[in-house]
Each structure stands twice: as structure tokens, then as C-alpha cells.
Amino acid sequence: MLQKIVTVGALFTALVVAPMSVHAQGKIGAIRTADIVLESPQFKAGAERMKSEFERRQNDLQANAKKFQEDVEKFQREADFMANDARAAREKDLNSRRIDLGLQQRQLQEDIQNRDRELTQQMRERINAVIVEVAKELKYDLVVQDPAFASDAMDITDEVLKRLKAKP
């Protein structure tokens, strides 16, 4: 009976541990995502595009908000001296402008978020293609993103960045 248990145990060990040791010999690489984001020219160019696309709208919105605030303050100073009809019309106008300004702000934020997602997706695709290219060329079996620790021998971030800088 004891011999049967030992035989089953040995067979189990051979079936489970042997494949693990074969897989454990694969070459593993690692990348540091934050470094790629901060240093890649693609992300820098994307940030510049975002800034140029939305800077005018943001400036216009800020100017409108400032003008609205000035008009509110002026109304508050003059409200006691206005006729009831004029005061009610002015309040209605200011309320309508406040609602419009809020809608414009939300629309701008949505547009910025949508464009950011679009550009980020494009950048991810380009970066992933370079990571795959480097991994295949250097014969890595697996590339891990942002591990808690990776030795310099496993880290391919610098090679990925070098290639990203070479590709506009």
C-alpha cells in the first residue's frame, strides 16, 4: 500500500512539475509603462495635439465665464434699484446664461475626454506594436507590464523607447 502511494506521488510529481520546469525556462521581459508614457515622443505629440485642439474653446469658455460673473456681480449691485419687470427679465437672462455656460463646460469636458481616449488608444496600439516587435526580435516568450521588480536584464523599456523615438 505504501509503495502504491509513493508510485502515485512520483507519477503526480512527474506530470505536474515537469511541464512547469519547461515553462519556467521561457524568457521573460518587463516594461515600465510610466517611463514610456513620460518619454515617448508619441505621447508628447498627442498632448500637444490635445492642447492645440481645445485651447481656443477653453479660452473662449473662460472668457464667457468671467463675463458672466461680472454681469452677475453688476446685477447684484443694481438689483435693488431696478424695476420689478427689469429685474425679473435680467434674472431670467442670467439664469439662462448660467445654464448655457454649464452645458458648454460639460460638452467641452466630454469632447476632451473622448479625444483623449481616442489618442490614447492610438498611442497604445503603436506602443504595443513596438513592444511585440522588440519581444519577438529579442526572443522573449512573455513581456510583463509594470512588475513590482524586474532585473535590468529583463527590462526592455529602454529598447522600446529607443525604437519609439526612431519612429515618428
What does it look like?
It is built from five helices and two strands. α4 crosses α5. The protein is mostly helical and 168 residues long.
SSE topology:
Elements: H1 2-24, E1 28-31, H2 33-39, H3 41-78, H4 84-137, E2 142-145, H5 157-166
Parallel strand pairs: 1-2
List the helices and strands in order. Answer: HEHHHEH
Q: In CATH, what is the homologous superfamily? A: Skp domain
Helicity level: over 70%
Using the CA coordinates, give the radius of gyration.
Answer: 31 Å
Classify the beta-strand content into a percent band. Answer: under 5%
- The number of helical elements comes to 5
Integer tally of domains: 1
CATH architecture: 2-Layer Sandwich
Query: What low-confidence regions span 5 or more consecutive residues with pLDDT below 50?
Result: 4-22
Mean pLDDT: 85
Please outline the major beta sheet.
2 strands, parallel
From the structure above, extract its key features.
168 residues; Protein Binding, DinI Protein, Chain A; 5 helices; two-stranded parallel ribbon; mainly alpha; 2 strands
Summarize the model shown.
The chain is mainly α and 168 residues long. 79% of the residues lie in helices and 5% in strands. It has a two-stranded parallel ribbon.
